[in-house]
Amino acid sequence: MTDLKISSKNNKINLSEVAKAAGVSKMTASRVLREEGGYSEKTRVKVMAEVERLGYLPNRIATVFAGDKNTTFVGVSIPDLGNEVFTHVLEGIDRKLVSFNHQTVLGMTQHALAEEETWIETVLSWKPAGLILTGRAHTPKAVQLLQSANVPLVEIWDLNSSPIDMCVGLNHFDSGYDMGRFLLSKGYTRFGYVGTSHDAANAATSRLNGYAKAIEDGGGKLSKQLCLNDIPGFYPGFYGTEQLLSSDPDVEVIFFQNDNMAVGAVHFCQAQHISIPGDIGIAGWGELPIASVLPYRLTTVQVNHLRIGQLAAENLLLKISGDQATPVSDVGFRLVTGETV
Amino acid sequence: MTDLKISSKNNKINLSEVAKAAGVSKMTASRVLREEGGYSEKTRVKVMAEVERLGYLPNRIATVFAGDKNTTFVGVSIPDLGNEVFTHVLEGIDRKLVSFNHQTVLGMTQHALAEEETWIETVLSWKPAGLILTGRAHTPKAVQLLQSANVPLVEIWDLNSSPIDMCVGLNHFDSGYDMGRFLLSKGYTRFGYVGTSHDAANAATSRLNGYAKAIEDGGGKLSKQLCLNDIPGFYPGFYGTEQLLSSDPDVEVIFFQNDNMAVGAVHFCQAQHISIPGDIGIAGWGELPIASVLPYRLTTVQVNHLRIGQLAAENLLLKISGDQATPVSDVGFRLVTGETV
DNA sequence: AGGCGTTGAGTTACCGGTAACGTAGGATTA
DNA sequence: TAATCCTACGTTACCGGTAACTCAACGCCT
């Protein structure tokens, strides 16, 4: 019976047992482990020896509970991992968080606000140190949860002049507008756009809106916009181009949701012997790694994805430690004129 | 003073307050919330009304603590997010976990066992429901921590006949061996390899070893192997090819660490007007999305990354709920002969 | 010798839930 | 009608730490 109990409880060594083994009180052991001071060197050595010998692993759940504090978890929601853009942002976030002893709790919201709401509720119930959410749109209940939870929060990606708490991103509308204006300046008159599901009021939609506005302002025509029900990857860029060109062969230039889709388009054009930029112009967005190996410089919008993540994490960490943090950070963008238009 | 307290404590509504407001005991409120039964419909309605009115959010930390249970977190360690291969695995894991009310706690170990050990210790102190680790190599202390923690564990990626607990992956050595044999059968005699940092005993090294063994067994020559100190992406594939060919122009075929590197090579060859497969053969690994838009089918090894993640999560969840789970799952691979050799 | 500060501890209460047990009162059964 | 069972709760103790407090022993000073 006793054996069974021991084997089933396995590693249930807690602070009391360490203290007992070291011949001190629980409190003294606690002080030693937290290096709080108020104990002799002799005691410290005794306690640490028992910690080592028994393989004591602190129960951080209990610590959080005792102090009525929060954990060191930071909830990070991103739409999905299939979109390369967000994996770079996530990497920037996690690198920074880890170096400050925090852990990323992942939330893939699949671009659905309802999923996000559920996830927020779950994560908040675990008392996170902070939250980073991709996008500025949330359900009313989510907003209420976030406000009353009173947890440091950064909304990233799409710039938001009045964030719930803090915000790090760029103005997607402007980036689309600038691209539109640039293409107009190149003499194009018939414009196309290819992206993926834009049901939600997301950043890609803002880019499309900016693009459309620029074209309208400049007297051009957005002949065709295609929103595929797919991920914004290489192959959707490939077949999206095929679809767009077959339904509207007069389009002179296409703006894609991101570089990967644009590269898909480049490969489609190569396969069909359509000259770039002679027969058609191609523009991407986000400057993704693939662009570096193309035979010509892709026309795109350069965005420092990693920087967004880092800055979001930095501001969050500041607020977590009670310091002042910038409420709104604009990381900006840069138009890369390239050779594909 | 009182106001200050209220505003600072904000949403500190706990079960006691809900119970008091509903005119029942804490225990009854607890039973209602857990739908445990043992209460009248009238009571249920009263309690739920107060939960709603007060915006009560359960403190899951306290629940875990009370029951001396584990959280619903699952620690997932991957080398890095910059490697597209692992993001697919991670996506498979998280999708499955989420649908069973678990959350992914991310750990980027940067291919360093010491980082992994630190991360394991931290995550274990948070009482996770389970762990998924990429790779089979761990520090002795990490292994000891994992064993004594007695938490469900899946080691993924590299197949391991004697895992600490469970294992999901494929035989990387064999996949390299098969590729080597296939290339030999195509008549090549002088072989090259380009990958990234192989200091650790990782899966890519196993592939290289399998490849080298096949070449040796077949009487060919592994003329040159290049291990760049970079990420296994497009551009390293591009300049790695340049480096390899300039130092050893006689190489007839190159096996790359993954498809992205191979695509970088394809673009290098296109830029230099080197014919594929006429002048040189190119082989990748992993069948990544970019391969779908190339003008010809890339010779590669197809691996179902998403499936690895799903299967790992499935087995973990089985074990978490106390059921039997497969100790070792081989997801296999498939050689894609392609047109680039 | 008595007063006082410092050092190195121990004691108590508590964080927010839940397991285990206790119990009043009505319904059912012998 | 009394014994018994069930329903719908309430009470108590506890999970593993830590904040806040208490306290003994010792050295030091006047």
TrEMBL record, chains A, B:
<protein>
    <submittedName>
        <fullName>Gluconate utilization system GNT-I transcriptional repressor</fullName>
    </submittedName>
</protein>
<feature type="domain" description="HTH lacI-type">
    <location>
        <begin position="13"/>
        <end position="67"/>
    </location>
</feature>
<dbReference type="GO" id="GO:0000976">
    <property type="term" value="F:transcription cis-regulatory region binding"/>
</dbReference>
<dbReference type="Pfam" id="PF00356">
    <property type="entry name" value="LacI"/>
</dbReference>
<keyword id="KW-0805">Transcription regulation</keyword>
<dbReference type="Pfam" id="PF13377">
    <property type="entry name" value="Peripla_BP_3"/>
</dbReference>
<keyword id="KW-0804">Transcription</keyword>
<dbReference type="InterPro" id="IPR028082">
    <property type="entry name" value="Peripla_BP_I"/>
</dbReference>
<dbReference type="InterPro" id="IPR000843">
    <property type="entry name" value="HTH_LacI"/>
</dbReference>
<dbReference type="InterPro" id="IPR046335">
    <property type="entry name" value="LacI/GalR-like_sensor"/>
</dbReference>
<dbReference type="GO" id="GO:0003700">
    <property type="term" value="F:DNA-binding transcription factor activity"/>
</dbReference>
<keyword id="KW-0238">DNA-binding</keyword>
<dbReference type="InterPro" id="IPR010982">
    <property type="entry name" value="Lambda_DNA-bd_dom_sf"/>
</dbReference>
